TrEMBL record:
GO biological process entries: metaphase/anaphase transition of mitotic cell cycle; protein K11-linked ubiquitination
Recorded GO CC terms: anaphase-promoting complex
Name this protein carries in UniProt: Uncharacterized protein
Source species: Cloeon dipterum
InterPro entries named in the record: ANAPC2
Superkingdom per UniProt: Eukaryota
């Protein structure tokens, strides 16, 4: 009779807990058991296939891509949480086992990433950012919209609350699995830079007043508030470091974008005057 994986895992955990302290070959045996379990995880790649299969038939709509990403992350989290108790036991015996587990998960998962996964990830965070901004800017509930500017659905069928809930759930899973940076870090940075550039252009185009104070306020109250939601499940130290590094880079990008737009506008004015003078 074939032993199920969950039963096999339970036996391994019992053996780990009952390992006699002080045995001559204790360290070597523990290391072998750790390696055995980690290799077993690496060999069982069905969770990898099931995860990426969800990405293969994603429609072009942003909401469909959002739902697909949330479903994939939820499935992956449930599959890998089967190893949670074993990894916790291993961490008592082999301090580095948790890091090895995350490394194997990252390596096995990303080795077969489909070509379109970055687009899906970007659409997931893009929709959540748009909904977050809309929810932050909606102060007067008496103003009725036929189409919600956050989720692009009819106002009577607004899905903003559902989207923000799923956004929080997916972020929680990504952080707990140690996949946030490897799976979504690059797309997050590209998305925020694109949003910052778009906002600066929209605010400053055709206006020669200083908008730095307004831009800095928007960066802190909207962009960083949203980024704080992305990493909210991390421990305090990691959370603070990520946000601190992010705010420095994003503020630098904001100033750089603002300066470029101002220089381009002044350059266009000068060129325009020279051309008119020549005529």
């Amino acid at each position: 009779m074939r032993i199920r994986f969950c039963d096999r895992q339970r036996v391994l955990q019992m053996n780990l807990r009952r390992w006699p302290p002080g045995a001559a070959d204790e360290a070597s045996a523990r290391e072998k058991i750790c390696l055995l379990i980690l290799r077993h995880l690496q060999a069982r790649k069905r969770w990898q296939k099931q995860f990426w299969e969800i990405f293969t038939a994603v429609p072009e709509s942003e909401k469909a891509a959002f739902d697909a990403f949330h479903s994939a992350i939820t499935l992956l989290f449930k599959k890998l949480m089967l190893f949670e108790s074993t990894v916790k036991t291993l961490s008592l015996l082999e301090p580095n086992s948790g890091g090895k587990f995350e490394s194997i998960v990252q390596g096995v998962l990303l080795a077969k990433a489909p070509y379109n996964h970055q687009r899906v990830v970007k659409m997931f965070f893009g929709l959540s950012f748009k909904v977050f901004c809309h929810s932050e800017n909606t102060h007067d509930e008496s103003l009725e919209e036929l189409i919600c500017q956050g989720c692009s659905q009819e106002s009577e069928r607004c899905m903003c609350k559902e989207i923000l809930k799923k956004f929080s759930e997916a972020n929680n899973h990504l952080v707990r699995l140690g996949l946030m940076e490897r799976l979504a870090g690059e797309q997050l940075r590209e998305l925020l830079q694109m949003r910052i550039k778009s906002y600066v252009q929209e605010l400053c185009k055709g206006s020669f007043s200083s908008h730095l104070a307004e831009l800095e306020s928007w960066l802190e109250t909207v962009v960083m508030a949203w980024l704080n939601c992305v990493y909210e499940e991390q421990d305090d130290v990691a959370h603070s470091l990520v946000l601190e590094l992010s705010i420095v880079k994003l503020r630098h990008f904001l100033y750089e974008t603002y300066t470029k737009i101002r220089v381009e506008e002044f350059f266009n004015i000068i060129i325009g005057k020279l051309l008119r003078h020549r005529d």
